Amino acid sequence: MAHCEQVPTAALTVDSVLSRMRALDASLPARDGLAVFNRVYLAVTEAVDRHIDGGRFADTAAATALDVRFAERYLAAVDAAEEDRRPPACWRPLFQFRRHPGVRPLQFALAGINAHIGHDLALAVVDTCRTLGCEPVELEDEFDRVGDLLVSLEERIRDELMPGPDLLQIADPLTHLLGSWSLERAREATWAAARALWALRRLPDVAGEFTERLDAAVGFAGRMLLTPLPD
């Protein structure tokens, strides 16, 4: 596989991203929906950081740039919400329902993953290609490796946050809600969206409309994932 051009990435640090997420973790109430997702994403970023330090990515500069550009999208949404600006549509349901007593922790975690994978990751791939002067295909290995980490973490999240078998019956609405969303399908759609956005980069009006529709569609899915459920 061809690698991205090695350009200076001093401004891109995983450590700064981790510091911001840890600060959020320390400042938010544990049951806050944003706190639930932030803990999940912090674990993902720590895992990526260990893989980068351990030389498990073929192209360290590309992996670092993708990881940070990806995180920047999430942190920008947090900043927008904190400053009373409108975050992207994909993030609005999580911020709107983050304190709703009828939404369960697993729903918050998956709604955040949906927003971040379904929308932010596609844009982060394009951001990274622009930063490093490469094509999306040159980031495919890094994209797949990060995706594999997310899949393994999603399995752990479901195990940790899913109610016990005595509480989760086949008729439980959460069972049906969770069955309607798949990280693997979201990953595949995101890669296709990233390639489409890159192909449209010289048509800014069309790319902007595509991005807006992607944002809205992911936001709609997030709103469904956050449907308040009875105890």
Q: How does this model look, in words?
A:
With 231 residues, the protein is mostly helical. It has helices at residues 14-27, 33-53, 60-82, 92-97, 105-132, 140-161, 173-178, 183-199, 204-225. The chain has nine helices and no strands. The longest helix has 28 residues, at 105-132. The termini are far apart. The relative contact order is 0.15. Residues 5-11 have low confidence and may be disordered.
Short note summarizing the structure:
With 231 residues, this protein is mostly helical. The chain contains nine helices and no strands.
Shape: globular
Enumerate how many helices there are, as a single number: 9
Termini, distance in Å? 51 Å
- Radius of gyration, whole Å: 17 Å
- The residue fraction in helices comes out at 55-70%
- Structural class of the helix and strand makeup? mainly alpha
Unreliable stretches covering 5 or more consecutive residues: 5-11
Strand residues, percent: under 5%
Order of helices and strands: HHHHHHHHH
> Count of DSSP E strands?
0
Largest sheet: none
Average pLDDT score: 87
